[in-house]
Design a protein that fits this description.
Blueprint (H helix, E strand, L loop, with lengths): L10 H23 L7 H27 L6 H5 L14 H7 L16 H5 L1 H10 L10 H11 L4 H10 L15 E7 L4 E6 L3 E6 L6 E7 L9 E4 L5 E5 L4 E6 L7 E5 L9 E6 L5 E6 L3 E6 L4 E7 L5 E6 L6 E6 L4 E5 L12 E3 L6 E6 L5 E6 L4 E5 L6 H12 L12 H4 L10
Antiparallel strand pairs: 1-2, 2-3, 3-4, 5-6, 6-7, 7-8, 9-10, 10-11, 11-12, 13-14, 14-15, 15-16, 17-18, 18-19
Helix pairs in contact: 1-2
């Protein structure tokens, strides 16, 4: 049959099932033999057909037990049982289909994104220049690079970027498995450690240096409601901060001799509170958080207190970041589908106004990540799209209103529903989307 069946484990169960089927077949034969002899010749012909059908069905059931029911078209096979009015013994096309191998259909291939506008944007030239692919020398020439390294003792930064951009790993393997959902995963210390946080209230630190992936530390999170929701690592790689349904963030030292938890309290309104997103400033002095009350929170680590509370969005704030190294410019994204850019030098806490709004998503924003040049950032959304923005060009009021209206029309919840097909397949673009 093209497959060998192991005689261990489930083989004994299969053998027992085959014996039961054979016994059932013998009982069917005995009942058939007791048909009265007063039947005419046409009844004898029907009797022979019945015996043939029973024998055929028994053989098919034995095969189904041995090779698995899904690999046989048993729906077509069962149609030949005497309940079907057709009694022909000829091999029809339908009978042949039931024995053919029927592979699973291939998953739909994603449509390639339209990059025509990105190719014309400034960021394409900046990226090619940083990779060194904007010149003739930008062609990947490994022997030449190795020869140059033997003279200088190291690869240049441009050569490293060029190699990494064109030689990507394509042989994935499973390195860890959990019993609970994993909500966070991030690298730190220039990729030497990888950290995960899951719904079992544990943070796991892995050593990923020198192509390793070894568990180095497991941290039991404290004051966790439902799950750990976000984790941030300080730029120096010394501390991590995690958030949950709590009035405080929690800070823990990384890979230190002493696992010390420090609560960083906030001052929210009298309601159930949660920081959905947290980010370190480049100098590690401040923390920026976005909460379920629609506010942004700034925390001064040196003074160990909340320094600012900014009314930012009409719904949950799911993503926050510092746009550049100066820490003056902030960005936030929320369930209202808008990404807002803030400048702390002109920001008043009693009358907070963003310097600009980026609109174009038709569902809530889940993640914001800056390029670090103070000009570009990307946003990810529940509408299954990622958008690249130039924050020097903001959206107009009409586009903002259209985006908010499109978000309000959504009727699905990612927490207990799969992405609807009309959302995943949608390629609609709002007028004025920058």
């Amino acid at each position: 049959m093209g497959q060998r069946m192991s005689l261990s484990g489930d083989a004994e169960d299969a053998r027992e099932a085959v014996d039961n089927l054979v016994n059932d077949d013998a009982n069917d034969r005995e009942r058939t033999a007791n048909i009265p002899s007063v039947l005419d010749s046409s009844d004898n012909s029907d009797d022979e057909t019945l015996r043939s059908s029973l024998e055929d069905r028994t053989f098919q059931n034995i095969l189904a037990v041995l090779v698995g029911r899904q690999s046989l078209g048993l729906s077509a096979v069962s149609g030949r049982y005497p309940h079907d009015e057709t009694t022909s013994d000829s091999d029809s096309e339908a009978d042949g289909q039931s024995w053919r191998y029927q592979p699973q259909p291939a998953p739909p291939q994603p449509r390639p994104p339209d990059t025509s506008k990105i190719e014309l944007a400034e960021i394409t030239a900046l990226t090619k220049r940083s990779l060194g692919s904007d010149t003739k020398r930008g062609q990947l020439n490994l022997p030449g690079m190795i020869a140059a390294r033997s003279l200088s003792g190291h690869f240049t930064v441009r050569d490293k970027r060029l190699i990494c951009s064109q030689i990507l790993p394509h042989n994935p393997k499973k390195v860890a498995q959990y019993k609970n959902k994993v909500f966070c995963g991030t690298h730190a210390r220039d990729g030497d450690i990888f950290m995960t946080a899951s719904q079992d209230c544990k943070l796991r630190i892995y050593d990923t240096s020198r192509q390793n992936f070894k568990l180095k530390q497991t941290i039991e999170a404290r004051d966790v409601g439902w799950s750990i929701l976000d984790v941030a690592v300080s730029p120096d790689g010394e501390h991590l901060v995690y958030s949950s349904w709590s009035d405080s963030l929690h800070q823990v030292s990384l890979l230190g001799s002493e696992e010390k938890h420090v609560a960083l309290p906030f001052c929210p309104d009298d309601r159930q509170f949660c920081i959905f997103s947290v980010s370190f400033s480049c100098d590690s002095r401040e923390l920026l958080g976005g909460a379920n009350d629609g506010y942004l929170y700034l925390y001064d680590r040196e003074a160990n207190k909340q320094s600012s509370r900014i009314e930012a969005h009409e719904d949950d704030v799911n993503a926050v970041c510092f746009v550049d190294e100066t820490t003056h410019v902030l960005a936030s994204g929320g369930d209202d589908g808008l990404c807002k850019v803030w400048d702390r030098r002109s920001l008043r806490e009693d009358d907070p106004r963003p310097v600009g709004i980026l609109a174009g998503h038709v569902d809530g924003i889940t993640y914001v990540d800056p390029r670090g040049d103070g000009r570009h950032l990307i946003t990810n959304s529940k509408d299954q799209s990622i958008k690249l923005w130039d924050i020097r060009k903001f959206s107009n009021s009409d586009t903002i209103e259209m985006s908010k209206q499109a978000v309000s029309n959504q009727r699905w919840d990612y927490r207990w529903q799969r992405v609807p097909k009309h959302v995943g397949n949608s390629r609609t673009r709002l007028e004025g989307d920058t």
